[in-house]
From TrEMBL:
InterPro entries reported for this sequence: HMA_dom, HMA_dom_sf
Lineage per the UniProt record: Bacteria, Pseudomonadati, Bacteroidota, Cytophagia, Cytophagales
SUPFAM superfamilies assigned: HMA, heavy metal-associated domain (SSF55008)
Positions of the HMA domain: 1-67
CDD domains tied to this protein: HMA
Official protein name in the record: Heavy-metal-associated domain-containing protein
Length: 69
């Protein structure tokens, strides 16, 4: 498994709820988390198959900003 990390603007429970269906579909439930306590709102995705570009596309598709950490 590889771990990918990104800075996002996913900063609250409502934001996490909004992006959950997309990330669960792409990465699988339990394979991602957002550290909303971190000032950079770090999204960590653990996957063997997803590329960073796929994660960026999924998060941007859900309406959030994202960049490599």
């Amino acid at each position: 498994m590889k771990t990918l990390q990104f800075k996002t603007n996913i900063n609250c429970g409502g934001c996490i709820k909004a992006v959950t269906p997309t990330l669960n579909q792409q990465a699988g439930a339990g394979n991602w988390q957002v550290d909303t306590a971190n000032p950079n709102k770090i999204l960590t995705v653990t996957s063997d198959q997803l590329t960073p570009a796929q994660v960026v596309q999924a998060v941007e598709g859900a309406g959030f900003k994202i960049q490599a950490a």
